[in-house]
Amino acid sequence: MDIFEKSDLIFKNIREIKPVVHNISNIVTANDCANITLALGGSPTMAGHPDEVEDVTSGCNGFVINMGDVAEPLVEAMLRAGKRNNEIGHPVILDPVGAGAAKKINDVLFELLKNIKFSVIRGNVSEIKFIATGSGSAKGVDADESDKVTDENIDIAIDFAKKLSKKTGAVIAISGEIDIISDENNAYIIKNGHAEMSNVTGTGCMLSSVLGVFCAANLDDILDACAVAVSSYGYAGELAYRKMVETDSGTASFRMFLIDYVSKMNAEIFKGGAKIERR
Amino acid sequence: MDIFEKSDLIFKNIREIKPVVHNISNIVTANDCANITLALGGSPTMAGHPDEVEDVTSGCNGFVINMGDVAEPLVEAMLRAGKRNNEIGHPVILDPVGAGAAKKINDVLFELLKNIKFSVIRGNVSEIKFIATGSGSAKGVDADESDKVTDENIDIAIDFAKKLSKKTGAVIAISGEIDIISDENNAYIIKNGHAEMSNVTGTGCMLSSVLGVFCAANLDDILDACAVAVSSYGYAGELAYRKMVETDSGTASFRMFLIDYVSKMNAEIFKGGAKIERR
Amino acid sequence: MDIFEKSDLIFKNIREIKPVVHNISNIVTANDCANITLALGGSPTMAGHPDEVEDVTSGCNGFVINMGDVAEPLVEAMLRAGKRNNEIGHPVILDPVGAGAAKKINDVLFELLKNIKFSVIRGNVSEIKFIATGSGSAKGVDADESDKVTDENIDIAIDFAKKLSKKTGAVIAISGEIDIISDENNAYIIKNGHAEMSNVTGTGCMLSSVLGVFCAANLDDILDACAVAVSSYGYAGELAYRKMVETDSGTASFRMFLIDYVSKMNAEIFKGGAKIERR
Questions:
Q1: pTM of the model
Q2: ipTM of the complex
Q3: Which of B104, B126, B196, B205 to mutate to test the interface with A (most CBs of A within 10 A)?
Q4: How would CATH label the architecture of B3-278?
């Protein structure tokens, strides 16, 4: 069964399970992460106090760690909730926001990687490279130009992703103009999405929350769930861009259209727009 | 004078007093709470540092405690600002977000209830039941299905609300498909609102901020102010849903339409849409 | 060369440099500040941990301190990042949110002013007066009526701004119905903007982030960059109001239109709408 056939079940599982997803996020994008989770038919819980997260997360179906805020209490909450989710076998998604941009962030990142088993690690190519190599050239939260995945270096990038997946045990999701979704044996490359998405804050954070919903409802097929998630989210971005142009509006309208199209996404729309290739 | 006649004065008081309302909120919905306060013609102050809140809150007309974040400094700020508002006779609204979902949250809740006299306590039925009984079955921030208020159990629910109001001294506002607004003697049941409101984060938090504005401008008639607030907010949700369908948009557009209709709300529109019944 | 001629270069520098601007903000408006930075073609970094900000801010082109949250770790982060930006010669913008409203806020304000050299200080007239005099009458985050700049007291206000600029070394930007942008020798008065902007939270915070982008890309001409920033942002507000009326929408739509028009702003649109006068 290929990924297009599988997508019916993947979307159906979300609608039926209505997964409750625990997100630890940050002051910039917490609202966006909660809203995109709801848009997909999931239910967000955003608890972040170290003493509440174990209770809260036990009642959820999955957990997303967004590293955008590395305050001590939050990091403790990430660790405690992450371990609890590992114990009960729920998927944990890591978004290593800003990896490589500051020693403090890097220290937190490696502490999380050491203590928590992740089902998925999703970031831009600079962040993912930093995880693999411990060095990088990120400026702020955007990927460095020199790191970008292109048609020319795609095979090297896929090989890199497979090795990192083998090392970490997590599906690796590298976001960019070309997305790579890979476990240690199989990879998808995805050419959905639109450059306009980088003109709105939180589009990466929201994607990690989207992965949380897809994975929490599709435990048995994390790789394919991630590929459908990334492709359909990117396609929603394409539709949003089209509507922004048609309405002659701007970046704030684009942001609204993006969430709107995610809220309308289903297997049929996905199949009409997905640009996925198995490698 | 019935509530429809009274609504003229209730809305007029808001426009004339332009109440400044102090909200202690959380990273997910602080922006929404501030914007809904402004949409109604109030002015929000969102100060949360323990050492600033007493100064700040003294210059305000009312105070809303949203328990979505239970970090120690915030809880201290809630307590200090709550006591100060009690001293100067300003209304204090409690939104017990997540009550029952974690021991930590419950501890904070009962500390607040012990130390602050609330004018209004607003939550979903699971949260309110937890306050009354100390037990419950909340999953995350949404009400449990088994707790829901229906036409069948409505009399029991009203009786329950009246008793809790008598015990706490606060108007009790239970949100759901059917809303109950009750003091110890009188209750309203309200059938405004739309299920789509649960597909956007912060619609409950925003309602508590709405109550803050209505109460801060209508000190002498908290019960009726709450009933008009809940009904008109719910009706704004109905209008927003209608516009979402007409524009074939999605959940992010719905969120915008909701705040838009709140910003246009007045006594006349309220009277045209309110579904309130006195019990 | 007058400011209209200069505006071509000012906008061109933003598009070419794509400045990365570090903002330390608050839970209410962090998302808005990040999105307005992106709307202009800048790139936001919102890091706020004391141990990460020096690393992060070194890779940026400018720094905006929004004083909306005065939690200790954030204040330490503001101080460390501010000093670092002073060392490397990057512009630092101060938004003294709530100055005068609480002793705690005032203490933080004067600690920042003592330790950091600001390129720009932007606030409403009550906040700016408080900086100059150490006293004021702010209620919450809005300016006091009695402080407002009018055509009658404008010369006194300009003189006041020039003196404060001389004292602090910063360009002073006073926001209101009439804006004043002044260094110690020259001032602009600006009559763009619309009252509707005060019905949305964060319009002041967003303007400070806008100033961050304009200044980070125009180091050699901070005064004129600020004047173009304030005027074009205000004009975007006028266009947004017009569209709100045309679409018969409300305050949430206005907020979106505002950011939309900022994302479409350029020297040509600016020249068509600017109401700037040199004094």
A1: 0.96
A2: 0.95
A3: B104
A4: 3-Layer(aba) Sandwich (3.40)
